[in-house]
Amino acid sequence: MEILGIDIGGSGVKAAVVDTKKGKLVSQKVRFPTPDPSSPKKIFSGIQSNFIEEFKWSGKVGCGFPGVVKKNKVFSAANISKKWVGVNIKKKFFQNFNLECKAVNDADAAGIAEIYLNKNVPKKGTVMVITVGTGLGTSIFVDGKLVPNIEFGHLKMYGDCAEKYASNLVRKKLELSWKEWSARFTEYLEYIELLVSPNTIIFGGGISKYFDEFKNDLKSNCEIIPAQNRNNSGIIGAAISAV
Ligand code: BGC
Known about the structure:
Blueprint: E1 2-8, E2 12-19, E3 24-25, E4 30-33, H1 40-52, E5 61-65, E6 69-70, E7 73-74, H2 89-97, E8 101-105, H3 106-117, E9 126-132, E10 136-142, E11 145-147, E12 156-157, E13 160-161, H4 163-166, H5 168-173, H6 178-196, E14 200-204, H7 211-214, E15 223-226, H8 233-241
Helix pairs in contact: 3-8
The structure holds beta-D-glucopyranose (BGC).
Beta-D-glucopyranose (BGC) is lined by residues 66-68, 76, 78-79, 105-107, 131, 135, 137, 151, 153-154, 163.
């Protein structure tokens, strides 16, 4: 089945048509920068001109969102306009574009893609997905089953939340070298391991395309593997969850 996968992020909004059976993009990936303010109105307008009209889309949509999403409704918005809180994304897609949509948390979406498609992910035990971008997205799968809306990017570290210490945005803002950033991320991993003891950690998000640059500097007792689809996992998983 072909579904339009959308990944709303703190710095960019990305989409592509996904073959959900093969778990592959079957169109080019289109991106527009997250507007400022990143209100629902502005983002929906960007989605309309850049994706719906561009792809002449009339089929199903799967949408990943950077906050807690329950039954398609947004409950938190850390790196995006607070106006999203309370918005039912499914209803908005129907009202605005007459399209059927399923919305999920962005890290849950990335995890869904990896669990279904990545042969290196064990089917049993606890698997954790961490997406590193503007924020830190986390998802947990136990024996292949998702525990939705895990928000471990907001664990407290040094008086603020972890994503203010070890995200890709922080790396860029502070101009940290890979070594410096890896040291921070390793501290975060230690914290995660203490709380969750995952067997495997899948590393995704915008920074995952550089995984080879820093993989040897990440110290962990668990196996860390890069997301097979790198940053496209969010788009692919959003589409899969809308099947
Ligand atoms: C949000 C999460 C999201 C992550 C990555 C965090 O700030 O609270 O829900 O998964 O950013 O976008």
